[in-house]
Specification:
Elements: H1 6-10, H2 13-25, E1 32-33, H3 34-41, H4 47-57, E2 61-64, E3 70-73, H5 75-88, E4 94-102, E5 105-111, E6 117-123, H6 127-135, H7 144-168, E7 176-180, E8 183-187, E9 192-193, H8 203-219, E10 222-223, E11 232-234, E12 240-242, E13 249-250, H9 256-274, H10 301-305, H11 311-316, H12 322-341, H13 371-378
Antiparallel strand pairs: 1-3, 2-3, 4-5, 5-6, 6-8, 7-8, 9-11, 10-13, 11-12
Helix pairs in contact: 2-3, 2-4, 2-13, 6-12, 7-12, 8-9
The chain binds adenosine-5'-diphosphate (ADP) and magnesium ion.
Magnesium ion binds near residues 230 and 231.
């Protein structure tokens, strides 16, 4: 078991202090020199070095002495910083089983004091490319580790801001609870991703609901961009919930039309294949959808886009700014280029070193991290919330 959150219970205040010092050092160092960590942490009697050894043992940091003696955070170390901050805020106090492994995220159940179960999404943007970069040691070495922290944090911030705005406008999305670093806490959606649902009582109703949602999104100025059977949840009553928002774009994006058509096409194809639905028959029947349809019934972006917008602008004024959006897109594009440059290199097993293996983290023993317990044992580092990697970039 790779993400052993039990470790969290045994980490002391000093452990978190040093872990935070490594995080701060990573703002401008890929590998943070030991002396710098020591200077930031300011522990007495060379305590920093002893603590670093302990953090290394638990795979919360990675040691590198190729150029100089230094450390960097692992995914696990970053996870623990976010988890501890959220526990201290009283958002939840226990981490449960893993419920999803995405390409670029891991999703766990977390439990509140009153027993309510929430979902925790840990963004791992750059995970794939980071691996590739590691395989090609000298390739864009600088920035590589810094990027995964920064990218993941931006992705989480974006997802949280979008989820919140969509929820406020009555879209069927999880309730956005909180966000810290690369971690988003949201309500747990009942049911399963559509891809796992073999049979539906009313496939046509579900289909219409989904298409109506993608249209309404566009009317509000947004395109999901990954709208498919993996990101649509269906519960026992066949209620639809849309998830996974880090890649959403505004209808004013230069490729908006293409993204919209692709989202729509995915749904049409899926329902045609899985539920044998035929769309040609609907030619002149929009089934109550108040939009133009093309010859095979697809909603037309040009028609919707005529009078759409406002949520995209509203979001631009929220916590997730236009600048963040541009930067995230630029970084993702940069990461993708790096990926295609070194696609065949690096395997999932290389993640082991990071303390988390994509395929290995299947279960987590439930853990009671009551607030008191964590505060008592791990200390309450006030500066946790204030220093985020990449803030000034
Ligand atoms: P990714 O960006 O990696 O695809 P997703 O947000 O799509 O991540 O989540 C991956 C999987 O985790 C989903 O397919 C779903 O099974 C599960 N999941 C994600 N969010 C929730 C949630 N709020 N409630 C229940 N399950 C969820
Ligand atoms: Mg997904």
């Amino acid at each position: 078991m790779k993400l052993d959150v039990n470790v969290l219970r045994y980490l002391s205040k000093d452990d978190f202090r040093v872990l935070t010092a490594v995080e701060m050092g990573m703002r401008n160092h890929e590998i943070v020199p030991c002396e710098l960590i020591d200077r930031i942490a300011r522990l007495k009697h060379g305590g920093t070095y002893k603590v670093l050894k302990n953090l290394l043992k638990h795979k919360l940091v990675h040691h590198d002495s190729s150029k100089y003696d230094g450390f960097r955070l692992t995914y696990l170390g970053y996870d623990f910083l976010a988890i501890k901050t959220l526990v201290n805020r009283g958002i939840f106090n226990g981490v449960g089983r893993q419920i999803g492994v995405g390409k670029e995220s891991d999703i766990f159940e977390v439990v509140k004091e009153d027993g309510t179960v929430l979902a925790m999404k840990l963004h791992r943007l750059g995970r794939v490319s980071f691996r590739a970069v590691k395989a090609k040691r000298d390739y864009l070495r600088h920035r590589s580790s810094y990027n995964w922290l920064y990218l993941s944090r931006l992705a989480a911030l974006k997802e949280f801001a979008f989820m919140k705005a969509l929820e406020e406008h009555g879209f069927p999305v999880p309730q956005a609870v909180d966000c810290n670093r690369h971690c988003v806490i949201m309500s747990l959606v009942p049911g399963y991703p559509l891809v796992q649902v073999r049979e539906l009582q009313n496939p046509d109703v579900v289909f219409e609901t989904i298409i109506a949602a993608v249209i309404r999104l566009a009317e509000h100025g947004l395109i999901h961009c990954d709208f498919n059977e993996f990101n649509i949840m269906i519960d026992d009553d066949e209620k639809v919930t849309i998830i996974d928002f880090p890649q959403m774009v505004s209808v004013s994006h230069p490729n908006a039309q293409m993204y919209f058509d692709r989202d729509v096409e995915c749904i049409y194809k899926f329902f045609a294949k899985r539920y044998n639905m035929s769309f040609e028959e609907n030619e002149n029947d929009s089934d109550g959808l108040e939009v133009e349809i093309d010859e095979v019934g697809r909603p037309q972006f040009s028609e919707i886009n005529k009078n759409s917008g406002f949520l995209d602008k509203e979001l631009a004024a929220s916590g997730f700014t236009r600048k963040d959006q541009d930067e995230l897109e630029k970084l993702i594009e940069g990461e993708l280029e790096k990926q295609s440059d070194s696609d065949d290199e690096g395997t999932a097993d290389e993640e082991d070193e990071e303390g988390i293996n994509n395929t290995n983290v299947k279960q987590l023993e439930s853990l009671d991290l009551s607030k008191e317990d964590v505060n008592h044992r791990a200390g309450d580092d006030k500066h946790d919330d204030n220093h985020q990697v990449g803030d000034e970039h």
